[in-house]
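I have been asked to look over a protein record a colleague put together. Alongside the sequence sits a line of tokens, each denoting a local backbone shape. I have pasted the whole thing underneath without changing anything:
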Amino acid sequence: MFNVCPQCGEYSVEKAIDASGPFAICPFCGYAHPFLQLPLFLLSGPSGVGKTTVCLELPALLHECVVLDSDILWGAVTATPENNYQDYRNLWLRIAKNVGQSGRPVVLCGTAIPEQFEACPERRYFSTLHYLALVCNDQLLEARLKQRPNWRHSGSAENIRSMLQFNRWLKEHAATTRPAMTLMDTSQRSISETVREVAQWVRQRL
């Protein structure tokens, strides 16, 4: 319950941040709540590019971080395209903020783009948000999606078209998003190579 002021008990997300602490300033009583303002690492990419596999294997190499998959709450928590999924992204920022108070930054895996996080009220509690987008060639991505179990509905023509479009969009626009996203093409990389390079990318920014 990081958003509850320990002095007056009022709840507020949009606290002013005093970087000298850093402190989160309660708008009701002025209490300066000391907290850890850590970086957050966002691992994105279309379905089928390897995010989930990386998310499963990364903790064994990256003990200094907590690795979470944002899909674990998909369907259990409202996520609506009308506001660009910002309520869902804001919830994950809140979770990552609270997890980070243990002293370990979070690596959050899921299909998303910077604008969905950067406009969220909870964004202020992180020093920096770093974005890494996994991509691959279209033929490989389509083949992977078609090979998935039927219950995932990944092999439908509509889903394949949507994921291919996102894959291409990332390749074309990652350098111009705010902030820019780092691209990593997994087409010629094994899973172990990809996991090692993702871990290295995170460590270079800790």
Summary: The longest strand covers residues 129-135. The helical segments are 51-57, 86-100, 114-118, 138-147, 157-173, 191-203.
